[in-house]
Amino acid sequence: MRTPFVAGNWKLNKTPDEAETLARCVVDAVSGITGVDVAICPPFPALERVASAVRGTAIGLGAQNMYWASEGAFTGEVSAPMLLTCGCEYVILGHSERRQFFGETDETVNRRLKTALRAGLKPIVCLGESLDERQADRTEQVVEAQMRGALNGLSADDVQGITLAYEPVWAIGTGLTATSEQAEAVHGFLRQVLARLYRDEVAQAVRIQYGGSVKPDNAAALFDQDNIDGGLIGGASLEADAFAAIVKAAV
């Protein structure tokens, strides 16, 4: 039985002061909710402040990206040891915004993923198609290629330590949401590909989140699907009560 997992991606929002305040509100809002794993992923400058706010609670801390080198002349990048020192448990990799605006590719996601696993971080690996790709009936082709690229060279044991997040690009920050049936179809397809790449018990163990304009009023219908194991939440994670309602929906 897979434990559902809800993670909040705060993106480029909240100063360290604001992030600490929000984190403490999230702690209060989700207090007492069991049967679901919860994490929040603030911007890099806020990681240590948020770590102090969630310390001693069941809420995990994640970063929004990391580089594959541990040190060196890589201006603007952040390493796995730096994230661990800040108290991170999780790291988001391959988000569509990283691919769209910062040149991420399946190859660079793979390099980051291998480094994260070696460091003991728990990666959340994002996959998703654009609106043009969906309209051209290429969704399965696109997400399979992204997953194969990200997981290239990884063992079955490695893969069981990864969370996948299906985030249709056309539904991120647009207010559009895949229907629960559309989302379930892609999640089920991804699990079939995992079974082909590894074996069925591995595919059944891997958690696959849905992301893309998840809100309190649509979360339950999405999370009720057999292959959807929670969500990677963007805008709604910036409001503690809304995020808590989504967490409750995942139980």
Summarize the structure.
It contains 12 helices and 8 strands.
Task: Please supply descriptive tags for the structure shown above.
single chain, 251 residues, alpha/beta, TIM Barrel, eight-stranded parallel beta sheet, 12 helices, 46% helix
Describe the structure.
By secondary structure, the protein is an alpha/beta fold. The chain has one domain: TIM Barrel, CATH 3.20.20. It is built from 12 helices and 8 strands. An 8-stranded parallel beta sheet has the order 7-6-5-4-3-2-1-8. α1 (16-30) links the parallel β1 (5-9) and β2. The chain is globular.
Task: Compile the SSE list and pairings.
Elements: E1 5-9, H1 16-30, E2 37-41, H2 47-54, E3 59-63, H3 80-85, E4 90-93, H4 96-102, H5 106-119, E5 122-127, H6 131-135, H7 139-151, H8 156-159, E6 163-166, H9 180-197, H10 200-205, E7 207-210, H11 216-223, E8 230-233, H12 240-250
Parallel strand pairs: 1-2, 1-8, 2-3, 3-4, 4-5, 5-6, 6-7
Helix pairs in contact: 1-2, 1-12, 5-7, 7-9, 11-12
Mean pLDDT figure? 96
* Strand segment tally: 8
Write down the CATH topology.
TIM Barrel
Strand content: 5-15%
**CATH-defined architecture:** Alpha-Beta Barrel
The CATH superfamily name is Aldolase class I
Low-confidence stretches: none
Q: Could you estimate the helical fraction of the residues in percent?
A: 40-55%
